[in-house]
Fold this sequence. Notes:
Layout: E1 6-10, H1 18-26, E2 41-46, E3 53-60, E4 66-71, H2 79-89, H3 99-105, H4 107-115, H5 127-136, H6 142-156, E5 158-162, E6 165-169, H7 173-178, H8 180-185, H9 193-205, H10 211-216, H11 219-227, H12 234-244, H13 256-265, H14 274-281, H15 288-303
Antiparallel strand pairs: 1-4, 2-3, 3-4, 5-6
Helix pairs in contact: 3-4, 5-9, 5-12, 11-12, 13-15
Amino acid sequence: MTSTPITFTLTPRGPFSLAASIRFLEGFAPARYVGAGDPVLRLAFPLDGRWTPVGLRVRQDADGVVHAQAHSPADPPDGAAVRAQLRRILSLDVDGSNFTAIGERDPVVGGLQRRYPGLRPVTFWSPYEAACWAVISHRIRITQAATVKARLTERLGTPVELPGGPVTAFPGPAELLRGVEALTSMGGLAGRKPEWLCGLAAAALDGRLDAGRLRELPPSEALRELAALPGIGPFSAELILLRGAGTPDVAPRHEPRLRQAVRDAYRLDGDVDDDTLTRISDGWPPYRTWVSLLLRTWREDETGEIAGRRRR
């Protein structure tokens, strides 16, 4: 039995396409998202800080306005908190009105914007989930990690009933700690991964993975804090800050595939060193993260190096 749903709307500032977000999720291995063939996004997650499961059904009108209906298995969800989390997930908490201006100055970015109209970064549902993904995917294939994450969600997560059927939320930190026995017995979580996941759950309960707090810090300080968490290194720290907390204006320094995408898109000779990456990404503010996402999406579509297939 679910509580009475709440509804709300979001009005994007600047270009935004929910359909583009759904297409991105369908090719984003960690999400394991399977669309229903309609322009509706269905998702469930633990609500930041409260960690109660919430499910959402999201659609976009022809005028661009985004409509959301939120469901909870028990008490009515906190509407303001759900709204804030969805805005961050879809990068609607950032004013994108000037994003097209980057493409007018930089022909490479302009070409990407035309190829992926209205695509903004779609984050992990929370920095906590992004951190867990970083540990789960450590030193195993992305497709294998996605299977492990899905299995963990099925075993420890909470189903939320939505129109069209239930969607299961990734387990909140307390659920993860209660399921430590399942972690240690689950295939794909070898070595210290169960220990690290429990450490991340404790950090989330302590507020150290709060998206708002991370985004208020200078990026260098936030990255240092994140890299000190169990099982988290520089690459994973950037993942959590950019793709978990949704920081909009940082070009990742430890993402080799971004450098490869920059090399290919800008037709450069040789590897892209730090100075070259800085010089090129200095033309992208205040949307360095957004452009980085477009470049990575383009490279994956061209090579299929992660998903194993090319998307056209």
